[in-house]
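ok, trying the design again with the full structure, not the truncated one.
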């Protein structure tokens, strides 16, 4: 790890250790200032609530942001690094959206606070600092928050409801250089906000209500440290297995990516050159899209597992567990669906070619695993929304969930998903064979026109380039389109 990255890594450790101390204290303080037992002057109570809320938000948001960045710096594989970088990208965008907003700034956390503070303040001491922060937030948004599609892909694996798996290729545009630069631009804003909020809290809350504040008891349990002891002796073995899986899936991802780039052009050229209808081949490409997505899911989940297993900071491990929950929830939703199968890969890719035929055992096993994961009740929409969308009520709930994670359950479920994803890939290969068989049946009937071309070039079939064309036409006549393309693409 180069010196600049190492410095960022070490700084991240310090910030996470500090947040580990701060989050429980401010969580308890937030519940106090929003309770009926709070004795703060009614005129200042709402202002204190907003200040505490902002302090809590900043520490939580910046922690999950830092964990993602540290994961990217730790990565040993480009795809592993990209998997973590997309969350660096997503969390800075989501955090900025909650903090300042893209358009409706008055509805943002900072905007609402500034509006209330202007009415309730009893000193001008902090005005200049607050103005500087507001200007810095505006400038940062104009210069750095320009790629919102990547955030949707990171959290949903698609830009919109009808998204195509090929959209995932857009995430390759995220680079460590870009995210490091964005981090260095935001870091001073974050620290200035923290310093300002601490001064505001001292002035409006800690000094005048010190006696009451000292009576506040923690509400969150201690973060679990026993879970790391369970895996301690197996870390090297686990790291090796996860890294090998990432490398295998990265190779599969690149193969699918290459196929999706090249084959449509080949289909178009062959259709034009030989006047043949290759529309049936779209189903084969759709299966390649599914393979691409499954490889990505596996890389994504394995990457956060590495963050979890290699961290010695309880807060970081629990943040990793929360992201595991997000990823597993999204995989189940995209592959199988929770309430029904409509729009899922199960409907679109895995079972569609079988029509009314009996499903193969591998496909039945996939269904059983997915049903078992859903039945575990580990993945709920409320929990996912709390972790993903950093709105006020959400991040308060997210912190509570963070401190009540079940490490062994999350790890066991993640392991089950990682094991079933290759089975899904095998099932998709079976789907490709079934689709190819369906295509051959129809193409063998409608490609009889090729006989005329075969007769024309038969006398020259032993010449080098003509031989390849002749052999490809024979395959096309039989409906063996993919085999024909493999020959033609080398001409």
């Amino acid at each position: 790890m180069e010196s600049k990255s190492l410095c960022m890594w070490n700084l991240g450790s310090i910030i996470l250790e500090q947040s580990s101390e701060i989050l429980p204290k401010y969580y308890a303080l937030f519940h106090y200032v929003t309770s009926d037992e709070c004795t703060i002057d009614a005129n200042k109570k709402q202002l204190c609530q907003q200040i505490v809320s902002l302090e809590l938000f900043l520490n939580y948001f910046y922690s999950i942001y830092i964990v993602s960045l540290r994961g990217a710096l730790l990565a040993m594989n480009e795809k592993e690094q990209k998997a973590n970088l997309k969350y660096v990208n997503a969390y800075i965008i989501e955090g900025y959206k909650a903090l300042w907003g893209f358009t409706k700034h008055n509805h943002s956390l900072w905007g609402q606070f500034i509006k209330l503070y202007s009415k309730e303040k009893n000193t001008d001491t902090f005005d200049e600092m607050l103005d500087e922060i507001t200007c810095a937030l505006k400038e940062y948004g104009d210069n750095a928050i320009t790629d919102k599609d990547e955030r949707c892909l990171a959290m949903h694996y698609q830009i919109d409801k009808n998204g195509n798996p090929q959209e995932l290729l857009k995430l390759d545009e995220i680079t460590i250089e870009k995210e490091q630069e964005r981090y260095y631009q935001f870091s001073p804003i974050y620290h200035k906000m923290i310093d300002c909020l601490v001064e505001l809290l001292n002035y409006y809350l800690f000094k005048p209500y010190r006696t009451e504040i000292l009576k506040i008891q923690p509400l969150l349990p201690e973060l679990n440290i026993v879970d790391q002891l369970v895996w301690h002796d197996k870390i090297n073995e686990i790291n090796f297995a996860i890294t090998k899986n990432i490398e295998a899936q990265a190779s599969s991802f690149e193969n699918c990516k290459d196929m999706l780039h090249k084959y449509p052009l080949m289909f178009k050229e062959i259709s034009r050159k030989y006047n043949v209808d290759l529309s049936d081949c779209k189903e084969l490409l759709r299966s390649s899209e599914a393979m691409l997505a499954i490889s990505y899911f596996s890389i994504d989940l394995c990457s956060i597992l590495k963050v979890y297993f290699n961290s010695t900071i309880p807060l970081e491990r629990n943040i990793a567990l929360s992201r595991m929950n997000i990823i597993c929830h999204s995989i189940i939703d995209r592959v199988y669906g929770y309430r029904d199968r409509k729009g899922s890969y199960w409907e679109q890719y895995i079972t569609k070619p079988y029509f009314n035929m009996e499903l193969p055992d591998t496909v039945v096993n996939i269904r059983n695993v997915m049903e078992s994961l859903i039945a575990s009740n580990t993945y709920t929409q409320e929990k996912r929304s709390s972790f993903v969308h950093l709105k006020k009520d959400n991040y308060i709930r997210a912190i509570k969930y963070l401190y009540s994670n079940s490490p062994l359950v999350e790890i066991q479920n993640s392991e089950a998903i990682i094991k079933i994803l290759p089975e899904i890939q095998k099932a998709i290969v079976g789907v490709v064979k079934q689709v190819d068989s369906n295509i051959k049946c129809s193409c063998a009937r409608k490609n009889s026109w090729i006989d005329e071309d075969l007769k024309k070039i038969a006398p020259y079939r032993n010449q080098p380039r003509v031989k390849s064309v002749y052999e490809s036409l024979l395959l096309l006549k039989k409906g063996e389109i993919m085999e024909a393309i493999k020959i033609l693409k080398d001409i």
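Keeping the full-length input from now on. The mean pLDDT is 87.
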